[in-house]
Amino acid sequence: xxxxxxxxxxxxxxxxxxxxxxxxxxxxxxxxxxxxxxxxxxxxxxxxxxxxxxxxxxxxxxxxxxxxxxxxxxxxxxxxxxxxxxxxxxxxxxxxxxxxxxxxxxxxxxxxxxxxxxxxxxxxxxxxxxxxxxxxxxxxxxxxxxxxxxxxxxxxxxxxxxxxxxxxxxxxxxxxxxxxxxxxxxxxxxxxxxxxxxxxxxxxxxxxxxxxxxxxxxxxxxxxxxxxxxxxxxxxxxxxxxxxxxxxxxxxxxxxxxxxxxxxxxxxxxxxxxxxxxxxxxxxxxxxxxxxxxxxxxxxxxxxxxxxxxxxxxxxxxxxxxxxxxxxxxxxxxxxxxxxx
Length: 341
Description:
The protein has 341 residues and is of the alpha/beta class. It is 60% helix and 10% strand.
Protein backbone atom coordinates (compact mmCIF):
# COMPACT_ATOMS: atom_id res chain seq x y z
CA UNK A 1 0.00 0.00 0.00
CA UNK A 2 1.47 3.32 -1.04
CA UNK A 3 1.75 5.95 1.72
CA UNK A 4 -0.09 9.15 0.85
CA UNK A 5 1.63 12.48 1.62
CA UNK A 6 -0.35 15.67 2.03
CA UNK A 7 0.66 19.26 2.62
CA UNK A 8 1.51 19.90 6.31
CA UNK A 9 -1.40 22.33 6.77
CA UNK A 10 -3.98 20.63 4.57
CA UNK A 11 -5.77 19.11 7.55
CA UNK A 12 -5.94 22.47 9.26
CA UNK A 13 -7.41 24.14 6.15
CA UNK A 14 -10.11 21.49 6.01
CA UNK A 15 -10.89 21.56 9.73
CA UNK A 16 -13.50 23.72 11.42
CA UNK A 17 -12.12 26.61 13.45
CA UNK A 18 -14.58 28.10 15.92
CA UNK A 19 -12.22 29.60 18.49
CA UNK A 20 -8.58 30.73 18.47
CA UNK A 21 -7.62 27.70 20.56
CA UNK A 22 -8.60 25.41 17.68
CA UNK A 23 -5.53 26.60 15.76
CA UNK A 24 -2.61 24.16 16.25
CA UNK A 25 0.57 25.65 17.68
CA UNK A 26 3.08 26.64 15.03
CA UNK A 27 0.53 27.04 12.25
CA UNK A 28 2.06 29.41 9.66
CA UNK A 29 0.45 32.80 9.30
CA UNK A 30 0.08 32.11 5.58
CA UNK A 31 -2.16 29.14 6.39
CA UNK A 32 -4.23 31.22 8.81
CA UNK A 33 -4.64 33.96 6.24
CA UNK A 34 -5.62 31.40 3.58
CA UNK A 35 -8.27 29.75 5.76
CA UNK A 36 -9.75 33.11 6.68
CA UNK A 37 -9.75 34.24 3.06
CA UNK A 38 -11.45 31.03 1.89
CA UNK A 39 -14.18 31.39 4.53
CA UNK A 40 -14.73 34.99 3.44
CA UNK A 41 -14.86 34.03 -0.22
CA UNK A 42 -17.53 31.41 0.46
CA UNK A 43 -19.61 33.98 2.32
CA UNK A 44 -19.41 36.37 -0.62
CA UNK A 45 -19.92 34.02 -3.56
CA UNK A 46 -21.89 30.97 -2.49
CA UNK A 47 -25.65 31.36 -2.01
CA UNK A 48 -28.47 29.05 -0.94
CA UNK A 49 -26.15 27.26 1.47
CA UNK A 50 -27.01 25.49 4.67
CA UNK A 51 -27.47 27.98 7.51
CA UNK A 52 -25.05 26.12 9.77
CA UNK A 53 -22.35 26.30 7.10
CA UNK A 54 -22.88 30.03 6.65
CA UNK A 55 -22.65 30.65 10.39
CA UNK A 56 -19.60 28.41 10.56
CA UNK A 57 -17.74 30.46 7.96
CA UNK A 58 -18.60 33.68 9.78
CA UNK A 59 -17.28 32.22 13.04
CA UNK A 60 -14.17 30.94 11.26
CA UNK A 61 -13.38 34.45 10.07
CA UNK A 62 -13.70 35.76 13.63
CA UNK A 63 -11.71 32.96 15.29
CA UNK A 64 -8.92 32.83 12.72
CA UNK A 65 -8.70 36.63 12.65
CA UNK A 66 -8.21 36.62 16.41
CA UNK A 67 -5.60 33.85 16.12
CA UNK A 68 -3.73 35.97 13.56
CA UNK A 69 -3.88 39.01 15.85
CA UNK A 70 -2.48 37.01 18.75
CA UNK A 71 0.25 35.46 16.64
CA UNK A 72 1.35 38.81 15.23
CA UNK A 73 1.25 40.37 18.71
CA UNK A 74 3.38 37.58 20.18
CA UNK A 75 5.99 38.09 17.44
CA UNK A 76 6.10 41.86 17.89
CA UNK A 77 9.02 42.01 20.32
CA UNK A 78 11.10 39.65 18.22
CA UNK A 79 10.43 41.67 15.09
CA UNK A 80 11.46 44.86 16.90
CA UNK A 81 14.72 43.17 17.94
CA UNK A 82 15.30 42.00 14.36
CA UNK A 83 14.66 45.45 12.88
CA UNK A 84 17.08 47.08 15.33
CA UNK A 85 19.70 44.41 14.70
CA UNK A 86 19.44 45.07 10.96
CA UNK A 87 20.03 48.79 11.47
CA UNK A 88 16.60 50.37 11.96
CA UNK A 89 16.43 53.32 14.35
CA UNK A 90 14.02 53.60 17.26
CA UNK A 91 12.03 56.38 15.64
CA UNK A 92 11.63 54.23 12.52
CA UNK A 93 10.47 51.27 14.59
CA UNK A 94 7.97 53.43 16.46
CA UNK A 95 6.65 54.84 13.17
CA UNK A 96 6.26 51.33 11.73
CA UNK A 97 4.20 50.31 14.76
CA UNK A 98 2.33 53.65 14.89
CA UNK A 99 3.25 54.01 18.55
CA UNK A 100 5.79 55.75 20.76
CA UNK A 101 9.41 54.76 21.19
CA UNK A 102 8.69 54.12 24.87
CA UNK A 103 5.87 51.67 24.05
CA UNK A 104 8.00 49.89 21.44
CA UNK A 105 10.86 49.60 23.94
CA UNK A 106 8.50 48.07 26.48
CA UNK A 107 7.40 45.48 23.90
CA UNK A 108 11.04 44.59 23.34
CA UNK A 109 11.72 44.36 27.09
CA UNK A 110 8.77 42.03 27.73
CA UNK A 111 9.77 39.82 24.78
CA UNK A 112 13.42 39.67 25.89
CA UNK A 113 12.50 38.71 29.46
CA UNK A 114 10.27 35.93 28.15
CA UNK A 115 13.00 34.67 25.82
CA UNK A 116 15.56 34.63 28.63
CA UNK A 117 13.14 32.63 30.80
CA UNK A 118 12.62 30.19 27.90
CA UNK A 119 16.38 29.74 27.49
CA UNK A 120 16.92 28.92 31.16
CA UNK A 121 13.98 26.48 31.12
CA UNK A 122 15.61 24.61 28.25
CA UNK A 123 18.94 24.58 30.08
CA UNK A 124 17.28 23.21 33.22
CA UNK A 125 15.53 20.49 31.19
CA UNK A 126 18.74 19.52 29.40
CA UNK A 127 17.30 20.18 25.96
CA UNK A 128 19.47 19.50 22.95
CA UNK A 129 18.27 22.68 21.27
CA UNK A 130 18.39 25.84 23.40
CA UNK A 131 15.81 28.37 22.21
CA UNK A 132 15.50 31.87 23.61
CA UNK A 133 18.15 34.35 24.74
CA UNK A 134 21.20 33.53 26.82
CA UNK A 135 22.55 36.16 29.21
CA UNK A 136 24.84 37.80 26.66
CA UNK A 137 22.09 38.06 24.05
CA UNK A 138 19.64 39.31 26.68
CA UNK A 139 22.11 41.98 27.81
CA UNK A 140 22.54 43.15 24.22
CA UNK A 141 18.77 43.52 23.76
CA UNK A 142 18.45 45.36 27.07
CA UNK A 143 21.12 47.82 25.94
CA UNK A 144 18.79 48.70 23.07
CA UNK A 145 15.93 49.08 25.56
CA UNK A 146 18.06 51.31 27.80
CA UNK A 147 19.00 53.46 24.82
CA UNK A 148 15.31 53.95 23.96
CA UNK A 149 14.43 54.76 27.56
CA UNK A 150 17.24 57.30 27.67
CA UNK A 151 16.00 58.93 24.46
CA UNK A 152 12.47 59.06 25.85
CA UNK A 153 13.68 60.58 29.11
CA UNK A 154 15.64 63.27 27.28
CA UNK A 155 12.71 64.05 25.00
CA UNK A 156 10.34 64.24 27.96
CA UNK A 157 12.73 66.48 29.90
CA UNK A 158 13.13 68.81 26.92
CA UNK A 159 9.37 68.96 26.44
CA UNK A 160 8.82 69.74 30.13
CA UNK A 161 11.49 72.44 30.06
CA UNK A 162 9.83 74.00 27.04
CA UNK A 163 6.37 74.06 28.56
CA UNK A 164 7.42 74.86 32.17
CA UNK A 165 7.11 78.68 31.85
CA UNK A 166 3.62 78.34 30.37
CA UNK A 167 2.52 75.97 33.13
CA UNK A 168 3.89 78.21 35.86
CA UNK A 169 2.15 81.24 34.36
CA UNK A 170 -1.18 79.42 34.07
CA UNK A 171 -1.14 78.23 37.68
CA UNK A 172 0.19 81.54 39.05
CA UNK A 173 -2.71 83.35 37.36
CA UNK A 174 -5.18 81.37 39.48
CA UNK A 175 -4.02 81.70 43.11
CA UNK A 176 -7.54 80.94 44.34
CA UNK A 177 -10.09 78.67 42.67
CA UNK A 178 -13.53 79.06 44.20
CA UNK A 179 -15.86 77.63 41.54
CA UNK A 180 -16.02 74.64 39.23
CA UNK A 181 -15.80 77.00 36.27
CA UNK A 182 -12.55 78.53 37.53
CA UNK A 183 -11.06 75.09 38.07
CA UNK A 184 -12.16 73.94 34.62
CA UNK A 185 -10.62 77.03 33.02
CA UNK A 186 -7.31 76.25 34.74
CA UNK A 187 -7.32 72.55 33.84
CA UNK A 188 -7.96 73.35 30.18
CA UNK A 189 -4.55 75.07 30.12
CA UNK A 190 -2.70 72.08 31.60
CA UNK A 191 -1.69 68.75 30.00
CA UNK A 192 -4.28 66.04 30.42
CA UNK A 193 -1.67 63.56 31.65
CA UNK A 194 -0.37 65.88 34.39
CA UNK A 195 -0.50 64.13 37.81
CA UNK A 196 -3.11 65.54 40.21
CA UNK A 197 -2.97 65.31 44.00
CA UNK A 198 -4.68 66.79 47.04
CA UNK A 199 -2.88 68.30 50.03
CA UNK A 200 -3.21 66.13 53.12
CA UNK A 201 -4.39 68.98 55.35
CA UNK A 202 -6.31 72.23 55.21
CA UNK A 203 -4.07 75.26 55.72
CA UNK A 204 -4.90 78.40 57.69
CA UNK A 205 -3.41 81.63 58.96
CA UNK A 206 -2.86 81.24 62.72
CA UNK A 207 -4.64 83.71 64.97
CA UNK A 208 -6.95 85.05 62.26
CA UNK A 209 -10.46 85.18 63.77
CA UNK A 210 -12.50 85.49 60.55
CA UNK A 211 -11.53 83.35 57.59
CA UNK A 212 -13.16 81.98 54.45
CA UNK A 213 -12.39 78.76 52.62
CA UNK A 214 -10.73 78.66 49.17
CA UNK A 215 -8.68 76.30 46.98
CA UNK A 216 -5.08 77.15 46.09
CA UNK A 217 -3.60 75.28 43.09
CA UNK A 218 0.17 74.95 42.90
CA UNK A 219 2.79 73.10 40.90
CA UNK A 220 4.73 70.33 42.66
CA UNK A 221 7.39 67.91 41.46
CA UNK A 222 6.27 64.30 41.03
CA UNK A 223 8.62 61.40 40.31
CA UNK A 224 7.78 58.56 37.93
CA UNK A 225 9.71 55.41 37.07
CA UNK A 226 11.28 55.10 40.51
CA UNK A 227 14.57 53.19 40.61
CA UNK A 228 14.64 52.71 36.82
CA UNK A 229 16.76 54.21 34.07
CA UNK A 230 13.67 56.16 32.99
CA UNK A 231 13.19 57.75 36.43
CA UNK A 232 12.38 61.41 36.03
CA UNK A 233 10.63 64.28 37.76
CA UNK A 234 7.69 66.01 36.16
CA UNK A 235 5.36 68.81 37.23
CA UNK A 236 2.11 67.89 38.92
CA UNK A 237 -0.85 69.91 40.15
CA UNK A 238 -1.67 69.92 43.86
CA UNK A 239 -4.87 71.44 45.23
CA UNK A 240 -4.56 72.83 48.75
CA UNK A 241 -7.56 73.87 50.85
CA UNK A 242 -6.78 77.18 52.53
CA UNK A 243 -8.62 79.52 54.91
CA UNK A 244 -7.92 83.17 54.03
CA UNK A 245 -8.91 86.41 55.85
CA UNK A 246 -12.44 87.67 55.34
CA UNK A 247 -13.43 90.36 54.63
CA UNK A 248 -10.30 91.37 52.72
CA UNK A 249 -9.23 92.49 49.27
CA UNK A 250 -8.61 89.81 46.64
CA UNK A 251 -4.90 90.64 46.63
CA UNK A 252 -4.64 90.18 50.39
CA UNK A 253 -6.49 86.87 50.28
CA UNK A 254 -4.34 85.64 47.39
CA UNK A 255 -1.16 86.61 49.26
CA UNK A 256 -2.21 84.38 52.15
CA UNK A 257 -3.38 81.51 49.92
CA UNK A 258 -0.04 81.32 48.12
CA UNK A 259 2.11 81.24 51.27
CA UNK A 260 4.00 77.96 51.55
CA UNK A 261 4.62 78.28 55.29
CA UNK A 262 1.00 78.13 56.49
CA UNK A 263 0.44 75.49 59.15
CA UNK A 264 -2.40 72.99 58.94
CA UNK A 265 -5.87 74.09 60.08
CA UNK A 266 -6.49 71.05 62.33
CA UNK A 267 -4.78 70.90 65.71
CA UNK A 268 -3.11 67.52 65.29
CA UNK A 269 -1.47 68.22 61.88
CA UNK A 270 -0.69 71.73 63.12
CA UNK A 271 1.14 70.28 66.14
CA UNK A 272 3.13 68.05 63.80
CA UNK A 273 3.86 71.03 61.53
CA UNK A 274 5.40 73.03 64.38
CA UNK A 275 7.18 70.20 66.19
CA UNK A 276 8.82 68.86 63.00
CA UNK A 277 10.29 72.33 62.52
CA UNK A 278 11.58 72.57 66.07
CA UNK A 279 8.98 75.21 67.09
CA UNK A 280 8.34 73.56 70.45
CA UNK A 281 6.16 76.18 72.15
CA UNK A 282 3.61 76.39 69.35
CA UNK A 283 3.78 72.62 68.76
CA UNK A 284 3.24 71.73 72.43
CA UNK A 285 0.35 74.17 72.79
CA UNK A 286 -1.33 72.56 69.76
CA UNK A 287 -0.60 69.12 71.26
CA UNK A 288 -2.27 70.18 74.53
CA UNK A 289 -5.40 71.11 72.57
CA UNK A 290 -5.34 67.70 70.87
CA UNK A 291 -5.15 65.98 74.26
CA UNK A 292 -8.10 68.03 75.50
CA UNK A 293 -10.12 66.92 72.47
CA UNK A 294 -9.16 63.29 73.10
CA UNK A 295 -10.22 63.64 76.75
CA UNK A 296 -13.62 64.95 75.60
CA UNK A 297 -14.09 62.04 73.21
CA UNK A 298 -13.09 59.43 75.79
CA UNK A 299 -14.81 60.88 78.87
CA UNK A 300 -18.03 62.17 77.34
CA UNK A 301 -18.69 60.74 73.90
CA UNK A 302 -17.37 57.20 74.36
CA UNK A 303 -18.46 56.93 77.99
CA UNK A 304 -22.06 57.69 77.06
CA UNK A 305 -22.18 54.65 74.75
CA UNK A 306 -20.92 52.05 77.21
CA UNK A 307 -23.35 49.34 78.23
CA UNK A 308 -22.25 49.15 81.88
CA UNK A 309 -21.93 52.08 84.27
CA UNK A 310 -18.59 50.85 85.59
CA UNK A 311 -17.15 50.91 82.07
CA UNK A 312 -18.31 54.48 81.53
CA UNK A 313 -16.89 55.54 84.88
CA UNK A 314 -13.54 53.98 84.06
CA UNK A 315 -13.42 55.89 80.76
CA UNK A 316 -14.19 59.14 82.62
CA UNK A 317 -11.29 58.46 84.97
CA UNK A 318 -8.96 57.97 82.01
CA UNK A 319 -10.32 61.16 80.44
CA UNK A 320 -9.37 63.10 83.57
CA UNK A 321 -5.85 61.71 83.37
CA UNK A 322 -5.63 62.82 79.75
CA UNK A 323 -6.93 66.28 80.75
CA UNK A 324 -4.24 66.53 83.42
CA UNK A 325 -1.64 65.54 80.81
CA UNK A 326 -2.97 68.28 78.53
CA UNK A 327 -2.57 70.81 81.31
CA UNK A 328 0.99 69.70 82.03
CA UNK A 329 1.97 69.84 78.37
CA UNK A 330 0.41 73.30 78.08
CA UNK A 331 2.45 74.54 81.03
CA UNK A 332 5.64 73.01 79.63
CA UNK A 333 5.04 74.92 76.40
CA UNK A 334 5.71 78.18 78.24
CA UNK A 335 8.94 77.03 79.84
CA UNK A 336 10.62 74.67 77.35
CA UNK A 337 13.78 75.90 75.65
CA UNK A 338 13.88 75.63 71.86
CA UNK A 339 17.07 74.72 70.02
CA UNK A 340 18.40 77.73 68.14
CA UNK A 341 17.86 77.38 64.38
